[in-house]
Structure formats: structure tokens, C-alpha cells
Amino acid sequence: MLQGPIVNHHSSLFKSIAMQKVWFPLLAFLLLLGACNPQKRLAKQKSTYMKKTYMELRGALNEAEVSMLNDTVKVLFPEHLLFALNSSEITPEVRPLMNRFAAALNKFDKTHMLINGYTDNTGAKAYNLQISKERSEATRQLLESDGVAPSRMLTWGLGMATPIADNSTEEGRRRNRRVEFIILYTIAEKAK
Question: How many CA atoms lie within 13 A of 164 on its CB side?
Fold first, then answer.
């Protein structure tokens, strides 16, 4: 009489082990699939957010070149638009443009930006580096005065590095004297 329940117990144990062999890989696959979804959701959220940022900036800044590469937005202001020649003082005429820029940036506070100042290749390297730093810092200060959080902005003066046009022509040198804003999505969410 004791043999029957023991055999049944072993039989159900073997069935349980067999089921584990089937269910464990399936469960592991489902957990892995579930783990990927938040990453995909974040990537899609990031992409959508940056596309909206791009469209807003493009509409607000007709005077600037606004472009998008992957999920990074680049805003390029030519030097002649922001500064007098050999100066890091922002021209008063550009204030409305910078107000619109700040207002658009403030709508998309999940971004950070690199503010890069550049020069052409004329003049001393040290001078070009210094004026490019001063120009990037001056634009940061102006955006900060318009409400953009300073923690969202990093400035770099890059002097004559990375020309975007031929420095042998006046037009090329004019294009190389510029301030660029590289706008990136902020990964970490703000604490509520």
C-alpha cells in the first residue's frame, strides 16, 4: 500500500522537473524581453522629445542654422549676428533673438547644452582661444538672465579648431567665427 503513493510522488516530481526545464527558459526569455522594453521606451521618448525640441527651435530661430543629427540638436549662430568684430560683447539687436531662444529652451528642460565659441584662423592662437571663451560665456550669461538654468549649460572656447568653411576666403572666415549650441537630452530625470 505504501508503494503507490511513493511512486505517484516520484512521478509528479519528475513531471515538475520536466516542466521547470520548459518554463525556466521561457520565464528567463520573458524577463529579458521585459528588461529591454524600458530601454526601448526611453529611446523612443528621447527621440520624440528631441524632435519636438528641434521643431520648436527651428520655428523660433529663423536667423540661426538649426539642424538635427540622431537625437542631438545643433544651433549655429554666426559671429556677425551676435558680436561686433573682435568683441565678446553681444550686440543689443540680437537680444530679441536670444529671448526667443531662451524661451524655447525653457520649454524643453530635459536638455543640457554645450556652448562652443569659435574663431577664424587670423590673429594669434591665444587671442582666438580667449575671445572664443569669452563669447561662449557671454551667450551663456545672456541665456541665464533669460531664465535658462546655469546647471544646463557648459561653455567652451575652441578658438580656430574645427572650421566649417575655408579660411582662405573672407566668406569662409566669417562662417568660422561662430557660436554653436549642441543640445543633448538629459538621461537622469529630475527628482520630484
Answer: 15
Q: Structure pTM?
A: 0.75
* pLDDT (tens place) for every residue of the chain, 192 residues total: 455 555 555 555 455 555 556 566 666 666 665 656 667 777 888 899 999 999 999 999 988 899 999 899 999 987 677 887 788 888 888 889 999 999 999 999 999 999 999 999 999 999 999 999 999 999 999 999 999 999 999 999 999 999 999 999 998 988 888 899 999 998 765 444
Helix axes 95-107, 125-145, angle to 10 degrees: 70
Angle between helices 95-107 and 3-60 (to 10 degrees): 170
**Beta strand 72-78 pairing with 65-69:** antiparallel
Place of cell 582666438: 128
